[in-house]
Amino acid sequence: xxxxxxxxxxxxxxxxxxxxxxxxxxxxxxxxxEYAEVLAVQPISETIKTPREVCNDVAVTRQKPVKDQHxxxxxxxxxxxxxxxxxxxxxxxxxxxxxxxxxVGGGYAGNKVQEHMQANDTxxxxxxxxxxxxxxxxxxxxxxxxxxxxxxxxxxxxxxDPGRQIPVTQDGQLILTQQQAGIQPPQGGGAGVQQ
Length: 195
Known about the structure:
By secondary structure, the protein is of the alpha+beta class. It has helices at about 5-30, 70-85, 95-120, and strands at about 35-65, 120-150, 150-160, 165, 195. It has a five-stranded antiparallel sheet, with no helix packed on it. It starts with a helix and ends with a strand.
């Protein structure tokens, strides 16, 4: 056999063996893609309601306490004054009638004058009035992530925005939390759940 033919046959056998080894390594050593492609990210937020008390000083007008609720003093003073005036009118029995009428009219007028004065006898003071108001704010609690892996489109909820790609384990499982990917999560971040 020719020397160059022998070298060619050996080189051919080595080439076929090496090609087979590389193909086998690619099929066995690599189980799938390292990342899932992110198609869309939708933040999920919740409304937080925080009640708080708000107080203000307001001017309040109050009626002073009434000592004579039935206006007896005004009635008596009015009756006496009306009787005196009525007594100055007429003479004889007409004088008596005028005195009684003056006393009755004066008593009624005195009663109403005292009632009006008591209603207007007020004072103003400052009082603190409080009420509860509710402040609202929004907080992001997670992200709904639409992704594609091995040609299949799925959705998962995660505790952080993954960016353009989601890491995948060697057995094809998504790495959903920042801790699994070796990243420190922000305060209040929860674990992701694959759906």
